[in-house]
Design goal:
Elements: H1 2-74, H2 81-102, H3 105-110, H4 113-127, H5 129-137, H6 143-163, H7 170-202, H8 207-227, H9 233-243, H10 246-261, H11 272-279, H12 323-338
Helix pairs in contact: 1-2, 1-6, 1-7, 1-12, 4-6, 6-7, 7-8
């Protein structure tokens, strides 16, 4: 009987050993996967803080310098034109210095191979800024050529921001690409503004500028039509409501007036003051001035502005975004890295743009 009892215990242990080992292996596998994602999220947050957010500042500075460069080349003899351009260039230099100072070896090592390639493209573009500025000051460039050269400086930043990712998740990847499309649409409006601002100073819009303006208008519309369906229903509804609103209709009407007006005197299609009011709305119409609810959009594939605001992003305001709108963009990016709501994910060095209702 004693021998038989031992045999039964051995059989029970043998029967339980296989499922116990299987469960232990599954637990270990899940722990490793979860740990890797946690480490990846921390690395992503570090890269965003040290490279992503400063890159946004460089983009905005380059956009303003591009606009002022086009205005300067339209009439270099205009009073104060060169001084204004110098001020924009100094602002860009400061943003570039902050960008380069913040990126350490740890942030570089946290980037994957694709992101590192795009980061090196940014470094290459930064090295060409001084040469471009000299050609502008020597007036050896047309304003359209300078416009194109500045576009080539800006493009690598968007490629870099779009390559940043936190976790491998199909839904987050899709939403992230949609948000990247929205921030590209902002850049399209900024390019429209640069072209038309130069034309106002020059007194006319030639066929080349008009064609480029029309292309940017179409590009913005395409980016929205492709990006909006990938957003959550609540976010998509907010954006649709915005585009049916008066400010968006004013922007579309202004774009149509310029395109349909054809080449020639710009003031015959739209006045300069009217365009500036349309493209640079007051803080009461800007998206960053409204409160932002907790978002379901946790897209981590790009540090682009979240579409989950109580007021959708105004593409017109993107030509010269208010500080609150930029803060909301950063909050959405930080939220993507942590899975928290956008209102809670605030940078400690920035004053909050809105209260968190969560």
């Amino acid at each position: 009987m004693r021998f038989r009892g031992k045999s039964i215990r051995r059989k029970i242990v043998a029967l339980l050993l296989v499922p116990l080992l299987s469960l232990t292996a599954l637990w270990a596998f899940a722990t490793v996967i979860t740990g890797q994602e946690a480490v990846q999220l921390f690395s992503f947050a570090d890269v965003m803080r040290k490279a992503g957010f400063p890159a946004e500042d460089v983009i905005l500075a380059l956009e303003k310098e591009r606009r002022q460069t086009v205005v300067y080349l339209a009439d270099p003899r205009r009073s104060g034109a060169l001084a204004e351009l110098d001020a924009r260039q100094r602002a860009t230099d400061k943003a570039v210095a902050d960008y380069r100072a913040g990126i350490d070896r740890g942030a570089r090592n946290a980037m994957d191979s694709g992101t590192k390639d795009r980061f090196r493209a940014i470094e290459t573009s930064l090295d060409s800024i001084e040469g471009l500025r000299r050609r502008v000051e020597d007036s050896t460039l047309t304003r359209y050529a300078a416009f194109q050269d500045y576009n080539e400086l800006v493009d690598p930043y968007y490629d870099f921001l779009g390559s940043l990712s936190a976790v491998q998740d199909a839904d987050m990847e899709r939403q992230g690409r949609a948000l990247a499309g929205l921030i590209r649409a902002r850049e399209s409006v900024s390019r429209e503004d640069a072209l038309l601002s130069g034309a106002f100073v020059a007194g006319s819009l030639d066929l080349q500028d008009l064609r480029s303006f029309s292309d940017r208008t179409a590009e913005r519309k395409i980016l929205y039509s492709l990006s909006l369906p990938a957003l959550p229903t609540a976010d998509r509804t907010l954006l649709d409501a915005y585009w049916r609103g008066p400010h968006a209709r004013a922007l579309a009407a202004a774009e149509d007036a310029v395109v349909l007006g054809g080449p020639g005197r710009t003031d015959q299609a739209i006045g300069q003051q009217q365009w500036q009011v349309t493209v640079t709305p007051s803080s009461t119409t800007s998206p960053g001035s409204a409160s932002r609810p907790a978002t379901a959009t946790r897209a981590a594939s790009s540090p682009s502005p979240s579409a989950s605001s109580s007021r959708p992003p105004s593409p017109a305001s993107w030509a010269s975004p208010p500080s609150s709108a930029r803060s909301s963009s950063r909050s959405a990016s930080a939220a993507a890295s942590s899975g928290t709501c956008a209102g809670c994910a605030r940078r400690p060095t920035r004053s909050p743009a809105y209260g968190c209702p969560a």
